[in-house]
Design brief:
Heat Shock Protein 90; single chain; alpha+beta
Length: 357
């Protein structure tokens, strides 16, 4: 049996070093996890590839010094641009025939997807609680709101000959409608999402949203850039619900660019290792990506983990339900949504949607 081929094909990253911490083996999973090819890694000292205080370096050094295994159930490795990835780590010594330690091997498992699934469970519990609260609030608030709206409409007719006073009734009606819209958003968290999935042209769908926001973009000195993959296959989705998602994301991107800039809409077949292919219950299906990228100030690190939580918002106004509802809609499509952002460098929101078979 070719053991090198077995190690090369493992889904976990396998990195072997000699007694001087020089890399002698770097499998395909390590290439993906560390974002560095085996050709560029093998033959180099591990300290050249990772920070000297990195867990991987420290644990392998301890294994070489003691001849004993080391493990970390939860650690991190650092990729380019300071991005940290959660991993579990196990090291083991490699012995020569004489019994001396001649090297060490480390096995790293990417925990990103596990952490994400745990966050999904917590978020689902929060959404369920918010939904139950919304149903109660809606019942208690909508009835008196309906009575107020009816009374204001009658008052408005009585004041038809007094335009100055009619301005006040118009304001009242506008505000009542705004409260009603807020209640509808809350109810969206409680209602089952009824999807009517059909094959859709993603470009036509995204383009409809772009055209509807062009005037608002022009007013903010924002240029909308399209980067559509012309070979993109049809997706499987509910048109109205997906329009709701992309309207929300484009509006958020425009709100983030108060000083102008570029709003970039991108589509492509996904090669993402976590979401590029997903099990939809009847076998795996390839996914496509639809990205909305802005050149705004970015999102602070402490806020990024809470973006999809209901009632959390980074804006001065708003209920903080838009992204929570987007997340729910994409989840019902058996897709996913991911946000990448860095302060001062803008934000990229990626939606993953299944290809229609």
């Amino acid at each position: 049996m070719n053991y090198a081929a077995v190690l090369a094909g493992l889904p976990d990253a396998v990195i072997a070093v000699d007694a001087d911490l020089r890399v002698v083996f770097w499998n395909a999973a390590a290439e993906v996890l560390m974002e560095r090819s085996a050709r560029r890694a093998e033959g180099r000292f591990l300290k050249e590839l990772c920070p000297p205080d990195a867990s991987l370096v420290r644990r392998l050094a301890e294994t070489l010094a003691t001849g004993e295994s080391r493990s970390e159930p939860e650690g991190t490795i650092e990729r380019g641009e300071g991005r940290r990835v959660p991993v579990s780590l196990v090291t083991a010594p490699l012995f020569a025939r004489a019994g001396s330690v001649e090297g060490g091997v480390a096995v790293l498992r990417d925990l990103s997807r596990i952490r994400q699934l745990e966050a999904e469970v917590r978020r689902g519990e929060t959404l369920a609680a918010a939904g139950r609260m919304a149903v109660g609030l809606a019942h208690e608030i909508r009835n008196p709101l309906g009575a107020i709206r009816g009374a204001v409409q009658l008052l408005s007719r009585e004041l038809a000959a007094q335009p100055k006073l009619r301005e006040y009734t118009d304001v009242l009606l506008t505000e009542v409608d705004r409260v009603n819209r807020s209640i509808e958003m809350l109810l969206d968290l409680a209602r089952p999402v009824q999807l009517r999935p059909v094959p859709l042209n993603l470009h036509q769908l995204v383009e409809r949203v772009a055209l509807m926001h062009e005037e608002a973009a022009r007013a903010r000195r924002v240029a909308i850039v399209r980067r559509y993959d012309p070979s993109l296959p049809p997706i499987l989705g509910d048109e109205d619900r997906l329009l709701q998602v992309f309207h929300n994301l484009v509006r958020n991107a425009l709100d983030a660019m108060k000083d102008g800039g570029h709003l970039t809409l991108t589509t492509r077949v996904s090669l993402n290792p976590l979401f590029g292919k997903m099990d939809l219950g009847a076998g795996s299906r390839n996914m496509v990506e639809a990205q909305v990228a802005d050149e705004g100030p970015g999102i602070p690190a402490e806020a990024r983990a809470r973006l999809f939580d209901p009632f959390f918002t980074t804006k001065d106004k708003g209920l903080g339900l838009g992204l929570a509802i987007c997340h729910r809609i994409l989840e019902e499509h058996r897709g996913a949504i991911q946000v990448e952002s860095a302060e001062g460098r803008g934000t990229v929101v990626t939606c993953f949607l299944p290809i229609a078979k």
